[in-house]
């Protein structure tokens, strides 16, 4: 029997609808580099779902690639991007943003979230700094939805970011690598049209949300990023067979599927959270999405991971390990039950 | 009925064996980032096929990505890579190498090929240049097999490159985006073990050779490129679901399939070449692989492309267009016949 | 007695007026980073001399630094700069432009000069290229005045460049590392106001033209390059004691001195050219400025360079060496006579 | 009468010995790019003073340039440098290190200083991180001596850094932009030979320590940084008239002058500190070198700065300003007395 596996939301292949879409596409012939009919159709669905008819939509293979391509296109030399210290671009992309020449300006995050008022305070201090011409110029704010800690921004919080960005001439970028799990949360009020209204660019994750791989980058106002297509090419992020991504995103967005695909993950996570809380496990931070963080003694962690694969998150001290439990669109009730029994 | 399409070798989906492999993988659960069992199995097959048990093998999504990741890892600041002016890294990657900070040092190509003696002459001139410390330091040679013009290097030619590289401390890198079409040519004597013996790194193309997408990067001596895994990640080239690439390359290399998959393309190209030559079309340059270049008047090009999709190659003057006819593993006898009838 | 030295125009210290200016400044106290009164005064003189009251003027230490800072500020990712293959940014800056991420798009130069019609032909071909979105986007033209071969552009030639640049949305940048020697040529009609009228940025060389060191970058329309000051800082090109450059450029431009300082060099070069021609030396190319290129057999070159220091230029074949004779503002009649006697 | 000026240590020209050296050099002729006899002589003096006969010594114009050139030469792609958050490379170089593609890994500084044990704790955490291959690889430690806050490391502290660097394979780099003021402190035990023994590279500041401009980069083991000369050129940091820097550093190091030149600054600072403490000003942090930091109400700051120029340091809150008082080799007893009277 297969080992129980809650290590991450990218351990499984694709939702069957993706494979069907690829099999259907396989009979056809397509123009290259994302100019094909499937990609065009996927773009139309996304623009409709995001209520943003003028948006540019581009597909790339992975999330780090999407982040670095968008942010590098936004920033001039000597401009930087503000992010929570826990932000993916700071913590787990191996310095990808810096490799494009830009500094990630760190503010302390709380439960993975940045606070609009902290950004305002930072910008006020920057504005008062008589040496600011000798420092990196803040020009964009990076958020992720859900965050790396599984938490969510509310619409009101995003509006606050938009205001501070407008005040100080900053771009607002939202990394949606796990966006389907935000959209599937009952309490979430950041729907796709909210993102296209409030951000300058955002991504829609496919890899962790049902696709074999792929992320969509949405730029509500394409004039913002001239030459973006060629820049995607230049960074090695342009797939020759763009229809492979187009077919999957068409399948993900037809009939609003993307807004439903995360539901099983959220249901399973909710059950696990309830059970763990009853058993007295401290969950820090509490999260409404498909990621659950449990602090365990190293011994307990090692014993457990012989029977269920969990994600290593961090070792806050020499005696403890924080493990991540990630559910996904593919998590079954059996798996959820088995995990709860184990813990 | 579908329009006849010889525009390129990436217009079709994947060979059915790829979809089968992905469908089979879909039932499983995998560790991330290429550490999975399918990727490991694919690596073993490739190392065996290339007679290079110690090689590092990494999979990425596309060819530009592979080229820039390998070359940037090879070169220090102020070092550059020698390439034919027709080389893909010079002509059609939107400045990807320069974006990594390195100059492409251009030598005139002939029919897409570079000459080892031209590299030697260049290095001799460089060595005599008293100002050479003020110039880019040549450190690598870029070749493609087949070249962008569909021509092939022989084993003897590669050995000559190896000698000049050894003499001057240069790395030798071969871009094999269309390698299956070289391997399927009857006259080709550059088998995979030749590449692992003579080069410092080479790639094996999947995208144009039967896969949905993907390229393998082979580094015969992994000590050459320390930190390469993290550099792949940093460039956004590391797929979270690495098994999607692993599954395809396993299917491509099981039972030596990769060495056979290009055969239909070569057969079709041979027929087309014979027919076009009989009809009096000048083919420049003559090529043994799956790409054929025909110079047409603009009028003829426009008339033809209403009935068959061809690749635009270049407009050498205002009156003519060079069209590219590309066959692939998927080209059928019917398509080949229809094209011949049309022309 | 000191060896005769015509190796270059940067072998001598500064014109006495520079040392006087520095000695005078030494008693004062100045604000940092080029905000001082001397730099401001120098800027005013330069704006006046160039008939360009709105220009931004910045001072940096060296020519490579000026070139890379201006060009990197002009270009977005995936944009490149057109230059003659003999251009300094291509040949002798160790890949500085590429290190900023940009490709130098090479056109063949003739006697160091680029032809506006060659740029137009290149842009026409680019515009017709259906794959142009997959290639580097030409965005600037680099010229040097005088060129690296000592030749000069005429005003009419610069106007032709301006027209093709306007037609295709290109910036025009002129590297004036040796500009004083152009301005001192009787036949030159490219005065400073011509440069500020026709270019988007140009530099005024100090290092080779009488200063201890330093180049001025002139941007006629500063809106073109936002954040330029901070970008200078970021590239390590901002001198804390900016007044050291300000003092020298004030001395160079007070009373129009810069337009006269090159005269002795031009007079000496003229004498040498006449003498060498009489003696039958082939001068290739013929040049009106302070650089003279003579092809010698290797034996003759070696014999000569025991008695006079000459610049090594290149070794066109194994038997010959091209030597450069450079005069400067500091060249004396005695030195000129001694050189002529020697040769 | 001139306004009293304690704004920084780079407001004055050069020590007269520098101007004399330049005037003396002005009669000569020199080979270019730092190959001249003055630069060679300066190198010999520095190697002797640092007890490091095999060291490579290069001269560049400014401190940011030195920092970015050395660190970029040390680091491969995906490697980063550890620094205090107050470190110059993090705070006031406009993102220069990031522009070279490398992340500055921040640790909290105390009074401008980093703690070796904090670096060890960071490296231990990194070593335990199972995801470390997805993160920036720490490869160097950046210190400044004196720090940006005027504090000093002891020899014992540097030894502790060396140990942790050796343990984890890190380079140790010391930015000595104000090194003369450290060397002139009675309590300092980090002499030049200590730096060449314990670091992999360090700089010796000229700009703030008596020269018109210029920094020396010392690399005790030159094999560490291959191609360094060409990389200096490529970054625009190589002065054509290298003898201008050579002359100054020869003057600075002849007869051990550099170790004495900071003494007047330290004497003046000591007097000011004593007086301010007596008057009840809080000095944070207490510093032994030529920089003094005083927190003032905004009103007091504005009133004072009408009569004496002070450095703006930061505005910790809306009501207060931290001012920096910097003395230098040029500070006179009159100025010191006048400042004390004013405050």
Kindly describe this structure.
Chain A has 343 residues and is α/β, with parallel strands linked by helices. Chain A folds into two domains: 4-11 and 261-342, Alpha-Beta Complex (Aspartate Aminotransferase, domain 1); 16-259, 3-Layer(aba) Sandwich (Aspartate Aminotransferase, domain 2). Helix content of chain A is 39%, strand content 19%. Chain A is built from 14 helices and eleven strands. Chain A has helices at residues 16-25, 37-49, 63-74, 88-91, 96-99, 116-128, 155-168, 179-183, 192-198, 228-234, 243-253, 263-278, 298-304, 333-342; strands at 4-6, 56-60, 79-84, 104-107, 137-144, 171-175, 201-205, 215-219, 291-297, 308-317, 320-326. A seven-stranded mixed sheet of chain A has the order 2-8-7-6-5-3-4, sandwiched between helices. A four-stranded mixed sheet of chain A has the order 1-10-11-9, sandwiched between helices. The radius of gyration of chain A is 20 Å and the shape is globular. Chain A starts with a strand and ends with a helix. Chains in contact: A-B, A-C, A-D, B-C, B-D, C-D. Chains A and C meet through helix 10 of A and helix 10 of C.
């Amino acid at each position: 029997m297969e080992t129980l596996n809650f290590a991450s939301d990218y351990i499984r292949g694709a939702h069957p609808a993706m494979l069907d879409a690829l099999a259907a596409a396989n009979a056809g012939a397509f123009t290259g580099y994302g100019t094909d009919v499937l990609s065009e159709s996927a773009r139309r669905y996304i623009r409709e779902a995001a209520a943003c008819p003028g948006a540019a939509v581009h597909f790339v293979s992975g999330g780090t690639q999407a982040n670095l391509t968008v942010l590098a296109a936004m920033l001039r030399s000597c401009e930087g991007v503000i992010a929570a210290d826990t932000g993916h671009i700071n913590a787990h992309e191996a310095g990808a943003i810096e490799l494009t020449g830009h500094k990630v300006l760190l503010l302390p995050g709380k439960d993975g979230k940045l606070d609009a008022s902290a950004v305002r305070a930072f910008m006020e201090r920057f504005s008062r700094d008589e040496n600011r011409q000798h420092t990196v110029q803040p020009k964009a704010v990076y958020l992720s939805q859900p965050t790396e800690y599984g938490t969510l921004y509310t619409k009101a919080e995003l509006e606050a970011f938009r205001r501070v960005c407008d005040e100080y001439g900053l771009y607002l970028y939202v990394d949606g690598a796990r966006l389907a799990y935000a959209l599937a949360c009952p309490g979430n009020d950041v729907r796709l049209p909210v993102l296209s209204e409030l951000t300058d660019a955002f991504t829609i994750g496919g890899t962790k949300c049902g696709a074999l791989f792929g992320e969509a980058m949405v730029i509500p106002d394409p004039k913002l990023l001239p030459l973006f297509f060629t820049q995607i090419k230049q960074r090695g992020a342009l797939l020759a067979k763009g229809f492979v991504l187009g077919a999957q995103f068409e399948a993900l967005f037809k009939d609003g599927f993307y807004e439903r695909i995360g539901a099983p993950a959220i249901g399973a996570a909710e059950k696990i959270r309830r059970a763990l809380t009853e058993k007295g496990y401290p969950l820090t931070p509490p999260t409404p999405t498909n990621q659950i963080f449990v602090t365990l003694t190293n011994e307990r962690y090692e014993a457990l991971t012989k029977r269920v694969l969990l994600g290593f998150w961090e070792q806050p001290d020499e005696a403890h390990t924080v493990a991540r439990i990630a559910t996904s669109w593919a998590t079954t009730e059996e798996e959820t039950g088995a995990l709860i029994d184990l813990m």
